[in-house]
Design goal:
By secondary structure, this protein is of the alpha/beta class. The chain has six helices and 33 strands. Bound molecules: (2S,3S,4S,5R)-3,4,5-trihydroxy-6-oxo-oxane-2-carboxylic acid. (2S,3S,4S,5R)-3,4,5-trihydroxy-6-oxo-oxane-2-carboxylic acid binds at residues 196, 366, 429-430, 489, 519, 564, 584, 586.
Length: 616
């Protein structure tokens, strides 16, 4: 369906329209679908002046009925020797997809702008009546997509998936897809101009052609119904020309569960039922069930865990039991290989380190990570905080910026709503309090609650000092009232004094809600040793961890933390030669995977926490 159906309020978990053109509703489980991968070698052209997109009057070629061969998406070849075509994908250099361009080509390390990607492929005729979708895991930041010389759509936002229907556009031989990927930072963008991470550009995640029957299951969900033991609720959303009055079913063979319903006029059906003998998903027992969603002509399976999560007073309850979140923050980067992480192996590396550290929780900062991360977290029993890149200084009063942020939030919820591991949606990171910002975040939180009332809402806030007492730290941000978990970042001992200052701090934090410290940390270069007060040494970082753990243990309603950060990561803001050299050094591991002293401090703390829990 090209139309992006308006979703009524009760369709809480289905895909919601986002602020892009031509994009079809998101297919929420592309993993279990017949697909042809377009990963691999693509051709590329670096086009800083967007010469292949605009004519010399700066009008886009793709707005013209007759763009001519100068438009790169036409992938033109000279017709004869007199013909002038000033580019040639076939003779251009090769780049790997998925993958950012910065880490693949030295000349593109700092590049920000447009790169054209082209891939040619054959496609055996789609089975009769079947529909074909071109699915991208992510393109940073803006993607214009063309198939066989025809524009199929635009997508904005570097970390969320999107798909376009290309049924009828494909031939059996010599198809070509052209993508204009542009990672220019924009003031009105989400994120905006200023961040503390590398602006990796390109087609950073998998690309697939997915073939679906003419009426197919576009979205599906199943979860426990509130707190009630054994009651489950699910939903199936069909997509196609005729979707109403259709039989659909959810079955969980291992539990002997089967529930069916008939779709309404929008192609949506809610299915409820009860199950016996359910094993709840938890970090101690990450049990997943195979769930099959079926309709008359389609079926899709997924591995899904069942658990409840809620806040009760100042406690976080997982399956009704108190949980302390032993966390760590992670950027989506594989420093060993270089560049953006995207594969299952990358996820194994990062989450493997988190497990070694003793974590039961990860904060996936500062944007939605690739789907392999949350799927593996489900398998490994690691709880997850997911976040959108509403970071520092967004244009709070720009409605398009809001639509962009809210579309990114909706899309990650659509993608990950069946992941038991995901328990927190975070709205923002370290955003400065103001009326417009409060309104923006409040509206975002409402969007998240409407789309997914089953998970907890938070945001990494900032704390403030008290005017009366310099040793007091408190939260005065009014957005704290809107969240389920009050989270804040704090850098006492690094940006604010030296580690010894921590011993003097008095925490005056809100009561009645769980407190979570979403960041603390210090920079240290692996292998650099010295006195505890010498910046950049492992000893400085080690003592900061020790002092912080002591200080925050006094916060009665502290329910977890995720220090900054698992691994050193690339940042264009970090210039100090011989120490940083372009890396943020707050990792507990170096970019080569070497463990710094603070790694063991945190690991021991988490071990003790687990011991205390066992002995209770
Ligand atoms: C922060 C930010 C994080 C930075 C970190 C730092 O508060 O949330 O993105 O990388 O501090 O290292 O300064």
């Amino acid at each position: 369906m090209k139309t992006r159906a308006l979703i009524v309020a009760f369709l809480i978990l289905s895909a919601i329209p986002c602020a892009v053109s031509g994009q079809d509703d998101l297919i929420s489980n592309p993993f279990d679908r017949p697909s042809k991968s377009l990963n691999g070698e693509w051709r590329y052209i670096v086009d800083p002046y967007e010469n292949g997109y605009f004519n010399y009057r700066y009008e886009p070629f793709d707005g013209s009925p007759d763009p001519g061969s100068s438009a790169y998406y036409t992938n033109a070849k000279p017709k004869d020797k007199t013909d002038r075509v000033e580019y040639d994908f076939e003779k251009s250099d090769i780049i790997r997809v998925p993958g950012d361009w910065n880490s693949q080509k030295e000349k593109l390390f700092y590049y920000e702008g447009t790169i054209w990607y082209e891939k040619s492929f054959d496609y055996p005729k789609a089975a009769n009546g079947n529909r074909v979708f071109l699915y991208f895991g992510a393109v940073n930041y803006k993607a214009e997509v063309y198939v066989n010389g025809k524009k199929v759509g635009t997508h904005i936002g570097g970390f969320t998936p999107f798909n376009f229907e290309v049924t009828g556009l494909l031939k059996e031989k010599r198809n070509f897809v052209v993508v204009k990927a542009d990672n220019k930072r924009l003031k009105e963008g989400v994120p905006t101009l200023n961040t503390d991470w590398w602006n990796y550009g390109g087609i950073t995640r998998d690309v697939n052609l997915i073939e679906m029957p003419s009426v197919f299951i576009r979205d599906q969900m199943v979860r426990l119904d509130g707190d009630n033991d054994g009651r489950i609720t699910g939903r199936i959303v069909l997509d196609g020309a005729s979707v109403s009055g259709k039989w659909v079913e959810i079955s969980i063979p291992e539990l002997g569960f089967r529930g069916s319903a008939i779709t309404d006029e929008k192609g949506v059906a809610e299915i409820r039922g009860s199950v016996k003998g359910l094993r709840y998903w938890s970090p101690d027992d990450p049990k997943l069930y195979e769930v099959r969603f079926s309709s008359e002509g389609d079926s899709v399976t997924d591995r899904i865990g069942f658990r409840t999560v809620k806040v009760s007073g100042d406690r976080i309850l997982l399956n009704g039991k108190d949980i302390f979140l032993k966390g760590i923050s992670i950027h989506e980067e594989n420093p060993l290989r270089g560049g953006r992480a995207n594969s299952v192996d990358d996820a194994k590396l990062l989450l493997g380190w988190a497990k070694e550290l003793g974590c039961n929780f990860v904060r996936l900062a500062h944007y939605p990570h690739n789907e392999n991360m949350v799927r593996l977290a489900d398998e490994m029993g690691i709880l997850v905080w997911e976040e959108i890149p509403v970071y520092w200084t967004i244009q709070w009063e720009n409605p398009e910026t809001f639509d962009n942020a809210s579309a990114q939030l909706e899309d990650v919820i659509t993608r990950d709503k069946n992941r038991a591991s995901v328990i927190i949606w975070s709205m923002a990171n370290e955003t400065p309090v103001s009326e417009p910002r409060n309104r923006f975040l409040t509206k975002l939180a409402e969007t998240a609650r409407r789309s997914d009332p089953t998970r907890l809402i938070s945001a990494a806030l900032e704390m403030s000092g008290s005017p009366e007492d310099a040793t007091v730290r408190e939260i005065t941000d009014p957005f704290a009232e809107k969240v389920d978990i009050i989270s804040f970042n704090q850098y006492i001992g690094w940006y604010d004094g030296l580690p010894e200052k921590l011993a003097t701090i008095k925490w005056r934090l809100p009561k009645g809600k769980p407190i979570f410290i979403s960041e603390f940390g210090a920079g240290a270069r692996f292998g650099l040793h010295g006195a505890q007060d010498e910046r950049w040494t492992e000893e400085f970082q080690e003592v900061l961890y020790k002092e912080t753990l002591k200080s925050i243990s006094g916060i009665g309603n502290l329910r977890g933390f995720s220090p900054w950060i698992l691994v050193d990561f690339r940042s264009p803001r970090r210039h100090l030669p011989e120490i940083q050299d372009g890396w943020n050094r707050k990792g507990l591991l170096s970019e080569k995977g070497e463990k710094k002293k603070a790694f063991f401090v945190l690991r021991d703390f988490y071990r003790q926490k687990s011991e205390q829990r066992r002995n209770r």
